[in-house]
Design brief:
Distance between the termini: 6 Å
Cofactor: Mg(2+); Mn(2+)
Protein name: Exodeoxyribonuclease-3
GO molecular function, one term: metal ion binding
CATH class: Alpha Beta
Organism: Taibaiella chishuiensis
Strand content: 25-35%
Number of helices: 8
Largest sheet: 6 strands, mixed
Strand order of the largest sheet: 3-4-2-1-12-11
Structural class: alpha+beta
CATH superfamily: Endonuclease/exonuclease/phosphatase
Keywords: Hydrolase, Magnesium, Manganese, Metal-binding
Radius of gyration: 17 Å
Shape: globular
Number of strands: 12
Number of domains: 1
């Protein structure tokens, strides 16, 4: 089973790229982030025509997450990250697919640092850690998937010294990512490529993609009940080079 995550950076604006990639690679499950579309503007019909059913949590102009499935039963189980009823951002959706709990998330960026947006990021991470702890206790196979907006280590960023004042690279958020992996969640891409430079995002500016000046911020964290079934994974880096593409590349893993 191939599971992918893709920050599409506008599902309608980049729909041709999304459909081309889906047709080319045919993943079984896809987590999308940054839909930037209200609930009623999600391109459900186009995705159904491509063979994918979907559940999604939209928001006008910002955020938005979705889970797609091809030929598999898809049952939504939660919408919105628990813990703060006043948080109306569309950043979390969860569904059961093939007896695996797929948790699609778009963690806050947090810039500028310091400031209220970074404080919101830290509070969101705290809620995510609480959710992750509950998922571990439940023992149902689960995956935390999406754009975490966290650069876990120095190897995950081009010229780390330039990111010392960025919210994606602060010790507070990196420590939180480390706590998740130490609690039992497996960082799938780093498990597969322990010492290699792997990027999932290249800025639109300064020819970042051409220079391979990227970041690794799109992650799969695997529950112990599924981590042992990991057989492969990678980044469809070439998609980032397509015309009118997102600034992220699709990331994927395969499990038995």
């Amino acid at each position: 089973m191939r599971i992918a995550t893709y920050n599409i950076n506008g599902v309608n604006g980049h729909l041709p790229v999304l459909l081309q990639w889906l047709n080319e690679t045919k993943p079984d499950v896809v987590c999308l982030q940054e839909l930037k579309a209200p609930q009623e503007k999600f391109p459900e019909a186009d995705l159904l025509a491509a063979g994918y059913q979907a559940v999604w949590h939209g928001q006008k102009s910002w955020n938005g997450v979705a889970i797609l499935a091809r030929g598999l039963e898809l049952t939504e189980t939660e919408r919105g990250l628990p813990g703060d009823p006043e948080d109306l951002h569309s950043r979390y959706i969860e569904a059961m697919v093939n007896n695996i709990r797929i948790c699609c998330l778009y963690l806050p960026n947090g810039n500028p640092f310091p400031g209220p947006k970074y404080d919101y990021k830290l509070s969101w991470i705290k809620r995510l850690e609480q959710k992750a702890e509950a998922l571990l206790k439940a023992e149902t196979p689960a995956m935390l998937i999406g754009d975490f907006n966290i650069i876990p280590t120095d190897i995950d960023v081009y010229k780390p010294e330039r990111w010392l004042n960025d919210a994606l690279f602060q010790p507070g958020v990196r420590d939180a990512f480390k706590r998740l992996t130490e609690a039992g969640w497996t960082d799938a891409i780093r498990k597969l490529y322990p010492d290699e430079v792997v990027y999932t995002f290249w800025d639109y500016f300064r020819n970042a993609y051409g220079r391979d000046a990227g970041l690794r911020i799109d992650h799969f964290l695997l529950h112990p009940a599924v981590a042992g079934r990991l057989t492969g994974g990678g980044v469809d880096r070439h998609v980032r080079g397509w015309e009118k593409s997102s600034d992220h590349g699709p990331v994927w893993i395969e499990i038995k």
